[in-house]
Amino acid sequence: MKLIDGKIISEHIKQQVIAQVKDVKEKGVEPCLAVIIVGDDFASRTYVNNKKKTCDYVGIKSLEFALPAETTQEELLALVEKLNGDESVHGILCQLPIPKHIDEKVILNAISPEKDVDAFHPVNAGHIMIGDSLLKPCTPAGIMEMLKYEGVEIEGKNCVVIGRSNIVGKPMAMLLINAGGTVTVCNSKTKNLAEVTRNADILVVAIGKAKFVTADMVKEGAVVIDVGMDRDENGNRCGDVDFDSVKEKASHLTPVPGGVGLMTVAMLMQNTVTAAKMQKIKED
Ligand code: GUN
User: Fold this and answer.
1) Which positions ≥6 away from 60 have C-beta within 8 Å?
2) Which residue range(s) make up the domain with 168?
3) 79-125 residue pLDDT tens
4) Would the CB of 242 count as within 6 Å of ligand 1?
5) What is the CATH number of the domain that holds 105?
């Protein structure tokens, strides 16, 4: 089994971003990402800190807007509108989850599609489906980069995605379809799931259940991508794939931690510099 190393591949992406940042800075644009965090969710705080640290590393300016949990929908909308209108800000990201009294959809739909570096806006979701997107959701886009880096062919392959979220499962399926894969999307209610997954040449697991995919669900020689960020019975970090058993069958496998998670942040950096370039061209 070959380990797909998120550290190496995300570093490769970050080096590409560094070169692009240098290039746009020479053209007089300083790429800038605005990150909004509402409330004090511990995991969200960790993710946001990590995003800011990675911005520093690649030379992207980052602005943080940390709002109290009591923030009203109107106040949050007003901030998004202000950032939409600020020409020095190229990317806007609202860290999820946001408090329940705010309608997440209203906020995500308010972010200008060209600054939507998460690519959650319906306009960007539509571009993914058609296959002409510039901003792609970071996690699925990062997985495509991993497959490309490892030389995994997609055309003509059976691809199975477990999970149907708007953030991972659905856009992942679209990117695999656009790359010529034969794609099946499953969920926790799928009948005879193991039978379906055993057919997969490429298996992407984003179901959010610790060690859910076991060796009996995996075809010999399959490429297995684990999007999970879970905790095992001892409280240790693990993924949705039972790594120790699946590693005996898979040809390629991503670890958790050290896999897909690192790619998500790298692709956010790529989206921010892409957004900055798009906005600069529009200006010229
Ligand atoms: N919360 C968990 N994952 C994500 C993500 O990719 N983007 C945002 N904005 N929030 C998240």
Assistant:
1) 17, 21, 31, 32, 33, 269, 272, 273
2) 138-261
3) 999 999 999 999 999 999 999 999 999 999 999 999 999 999 999 99
4) no
5) 3.40.50.10860
